[in-house]
Design a protein that fits this description.
elongated; 9 helices; alpha/beta; 30% helix; seven-stranded mixed β-sheet; 338 residues; 23% strand; six-stranded mixed β-sheet
């Protein structure tokens, strides 16, 4: 939603502003090109071909489980007629893909032999844009270690991507501990498991997963005076809400009883009232959107990137404010595009 909001604030040639997509499906944008002049001191200093976004339609509405199962079988069945008409009749030079439901959908869109750029850390055979999770893990752990933390725990929701080869968060966690001379303790790492494919059991939402993960790390008899960790990193803002709610039930407070960092999205209100004493690894959705369009423009203008390449943007690392809630946090590391 934060990335789609970012798309909504960017202006594009010809079609004006894009409308955010509804929650019942992903959205695909086909992009053409147009000449745009950049003026400086009344003189045209550069011309290039830039992407123009056209909203061609969204995936058919339906339950998430139905969409996921259909995407594995035949992605064309998910696409409404307006999108099919747009892809087959309208000239386009590239595709931006938001919220793909499965790898078959990505492969099908790549079959048009045009550049495809999507949001995500698993993009093949397309090109992806995402925030640098490895950087987020390394820098937040190092910040806690510098403050004296010796047993830093991590709650991550990347378990559903392990079978596709995504281990950036886990690799960064272990490597940072190793480079700091600290032991790895598997009991301090909780990785959300994928939804069982052989049952109709639904995956809990991210807030509940955060609560479950914290309870697993704390054990059966959690006590403020005997926490198994002195630092905690949560890689999902909604999971952090569940973590904080559970901590409040136990009269345990981040910033007082242990040090904590969480993922967050710039401008989001999801952590309002839930981040006292907590540092942020802040992702800028507008930066992701700009990286998507600049990457697509480069591909449409002849740049070659290997399928599956992921262009990473660095988040901001902000330490927890020790003043009143809402005061600005000190920036520990500036964000920059790779």
């Amino acid at each position: 939603d934060a990335v789609l909001d970012g798309i909504g604030v960017l202006e594009f040639v010809d079609e004006g502003r894009l409308e955010p997509v509804a929650d019942d499906g992903g959205q695909v944008f086909a992009a053409g090109t147009a000449e745009r002049s950049f003026e400086h001191e009344q003189q045209v200093v550069e011309e290039e071909r830039v992407p123009v976004a056209f909203p061609l339609g969204k995936l058919k509405a339906g339950g998430l489980d139905e969409l996921e199962s259909q995407a594995e079988e035949n992605p064309v069945e998910l696409i409404d007629q307006s999108l099919l008409d747009g892809l087959t009749r309208r000239s386009f030079d590239g595709i931006l893909l938001m919220a793909p439901r499965g790898p078959q959908e990505v492969k099908w869109l790549c079959s048009f032999d045009k550049p495809v750029v999507l949001i995500g850390n698993l993009a093949a055979p397309a090109v992806g844009v995402y925030f640098d999770i490895g950087f987020a893990v390394r820098e937040s752990l190092k910040a806690m270690i510098r403050q004296g933390c010796q047993r830093s725990a991590m709650i991550t929701l990347g378990g559903h991507q392990r079978d596709q080869g995504f281990f950036a968060d886990l690799d960064a966690y272990r490597a940072t501990l190793d480079s700091s001379g600290l032991p790895f303790d598997s009991k301090l790492l909780w990785d959300a498991a994928p939804k069982p494919s052989e049952t109709n059991e639904k995956m809990p939402d991210n807030e509940m997963l955060g609560r479950i993960g914290l309870d697993c790390i704390l054990g059966t008899s959690p006590k403020r005076s005997r926490l198994p960790f002195d630092g905690l990193l949560s890689l999902d803002d909604m999971a952090t809400r569940g973590i904080v709610k559970r901590l409040r039930e136990l009269s345990i407070a981040p910033g007082r009883d242990f040090m904590m960092f969480t993922h967050s999205n710039k401008g989001s209100e999801s952590l309002d009232g839930f981040d006292d004493g907590i540092g942020h690894v802040e992702v800028d959705p507008d930066g992701l959107v700009k990286a998507m369009f600049s990457t697509l423009a480069e591909l449409m203008n002849g740049k070659r990137l290997e399928p599956g390449t992921v262009v990473l943007t660095k988040p901001l690392l902000k330490e927890a404010s020790k003043a009143e809630h809402g005061k600005p946090r000190k920036i520990l590391a500036e964000a920059a595009l790779d």
